[in-house]
Amino acid sequence: MVAHREGTQMLCTDSHKDFITHVAFDFYGRRIATSSSDMFVCVWDASQDGKDWTRTAFWKSNCGPVWKVRWAHPEFGQILATCSFDRTVQIYEETGNKKASRLARAGIQVGRGEASNNWVKRSTLNESAVNVTDIQFAPRYMGLMLATGAKDGMVRIYEAPDIMNITQWECIHEIDFFREALITAFPELRHHPVKEVSNGKEQSKEEPQFPDIRISALSWSTCRFQRQLLAASTDSEDERANACRVVFFECVEERKCYEWMSELTIRENDPITDIAFAPSSGRTFHQFAVAIRDQAFIHHINALEIQEVVESDKAVTIGTVRRKPAYVQKVVYKVNLVAGINANKVRIWRLSWNVTGSVLSLGGSDGSVHIWKRFPPNIFKQIGYREPQYSSKHKRGATSNGQPFY
């Protein structure tokens, strides 16, 4: 459902045949994309006055339940990405209006006889061997880049080298996001199999098994005054995951790699369902929200100092001339908890900031929406609340015992 000042409009009454897993607004808030466990994706367009929403296209996206759907920045065109239980990420592009017969041949159905928008699948990213649980487009100033998170804790970062041809995507980084944090907390996980000889037979000790650290959410930082950060959270039930509920990696442009920021690791005793960096709006620090059961916590991440690190091993000798060693800036961060929000015993599933990063909306598992605003210095007060609009019959079946469907 979509709420506005004059009331609430119910969407998707007959569009999806199963649970709706994700809803995403485009950059301007004029379009909505919805994904569902029925493997379909729907696109909705707002009327001129914003009171009515019309389904303009829907199609079968994947061969399994679709967990997330995301819009790219409109600078790159009308582009959607979906991730699914079938281990793939699909990239779609809207190419303009075409006749319904051509849409039917392409496998895309036009909704209710209105506009005939055409969405075409441009690429399939299938490097993951397990369920892909979240995707996030990078900030537009980084180019057309997409981060994907999987059930095995792997994060892959893709880039479209030519934004005019989004059929080609390159996997430029592949990061085992929680491995270093787990090894630091549990050194025994560092050990590798050791071969031994006993009675003339070769035996090997078993390597300690890593816990199943599933990625529940990804988020890119948007502060251009500091280095780019990429955060990932986990909702794993394994107790060892408490040592690294939220992990941060920093983009080091000099090395063209991502490095784990150990000082930023957030440790919690409960699964985390969502995380969200706030838009920077000129801030010199990162504002970061974390959803844990029925609470949301706001953190500020500050850069304390910048150190010049000399990498003498990177110096190159050509003939008798030795080049200067490389200098890399190392940023020291500190994370501070500045505020906490309580959702009145309702499990929080989604977090969303407004465009200035001053208002935080919480989506509850019962269908409610809680809206909180920041007041100086760092006090958050509730300014709005939207009650669930559906019946108790639907309410019982919509939460899956408070756990994510994937």
TrEMBL record:
WD repeats: 13-45, 341-373
Top-level lineage group: Eukaryota
Biological processes, Gene Ontology terms: cellular response to amino acid starvation; positive regulation of TORC1 signaling; protein transport
Keywords: Lysosome, Nucleus, Protein transport, Repeat, Transport, WD repeat
Location in or out of the cell: Lysosome; Nucleus envelope
UniProt main location, coarse: other
One GO MF term attached to the UniProt entry: structural molecule activity
Matching Gene3D superfamilies: YVTN repeat-like/Quinoprotein amine dehydrogenase
InterPro entries attached to this UniProt entry: Sec13/Seh1_fam, WD40/YVTN_repeat-like_dom_sf, WD40_repeat_dom_sf, WD40_rpt
Annotated Gene Ontology cellular component terms: lysosome; nuclear pore outer ring; Seh1-associated complex
Family: Belongs to the WD repeat SEC13 family.
Protein name: Uncharacterized protein
Species annotation: Steinernema hermaphroditum
